[in-house]
């Protein structure tokens, strides 16, 4: 709280007025000790009051509500596509382990996994936008088109989100390698030998036995990535001037907009905690072996 007051005083604001402004922005008395001010802030947060932005002069909740759907749209699509691509490619690599296809796809996965997403974003922006003009260079929605449920507007949103989504697909490299390792481990299990002795087809074995068990460890990684995706949006949204949570978070940092920064960090923290909680509570349903209620047969 004191940093906010000091910042306003350095800008020429009267000390008494600076304290009053901070109190109005955060709905917290800056003269209170930090533990008490923290309790007041948490109480306001539970009621949906995250204060008022010092730079945008509007409620932080409104800014988050306006930016959150755009970040969710880009990051969720990139995450789903990355994991789907990783699962499919990883399964192919494991099925043809040691062959030319496995060698080629493994090289591709290692290459993709070694490229930072922001480097991929710059490369895509340079070639697909500035040089070839296939996609827009910045923004999150088309201009000059009426906002609504119409194809020109929807297609414009998709075109603006295409490059950010493609930039995050580098995560599919790690997903592919993880799926490959899981599948190879499952392929060595005894129950697969029994399935082959029963005369089951390769498709049945690969889908009902290998894939279902190899995907299980990916489930936790997927949920954790789902919670951490907001952190990855900070740099990405700055590169493409995509006004989502990450864009506003960095803007709040530049402007020393403490209420907005605190609100954004709260969203990040809650997202990660919820993702870990959901993973912990639901994994026993996905994999009954860890539920602790195994029935022993004698």
Automatic annotation (TrEMBL):
**Where's it found, cell-wise?**
Cell membrane; Membrane
Chain segments annotated as transmembrane: 72-96, 108-130, 219-240, 260-279
Would you say which domain of life the source belongs to?
A: Archaea
The answer, when asked if DNA-binding is one of the entry's keywords, is no
Entries under SUPFAM superfamilies matching the protein: MetI-like (SSF161098)
Query: Can you cite a GO biological process for this protein?
Result: transmembrane transport
The molecule here is called ABC transporter permease
Membrane topology per the entry is: Multi-pass membrane protein
Q: Which family is this protein grouped under?
A: Belongs to the binding-protein-dependent transport system permease family.
Where's the ABC transmembrane type-1 domain? 68-283
Organism of derivation: Halostagnicola larsenii XH-48
Task: Tell me the CDD domains matching this sequence.
Answer: TM_PBP2 (cd06261)
Which UniProt keywords are present, listed alphabetically? Membrane, Plasmid, Transmembrane, Transmembrane helix, Transport
Q: Which GO terms describe its cellular component?
A: plasma membrane
**Record-linked InterPro entries:** MetI-like, MetI-like_sf
Principal localisation: membrane
The reply on keyword DNA damage is no
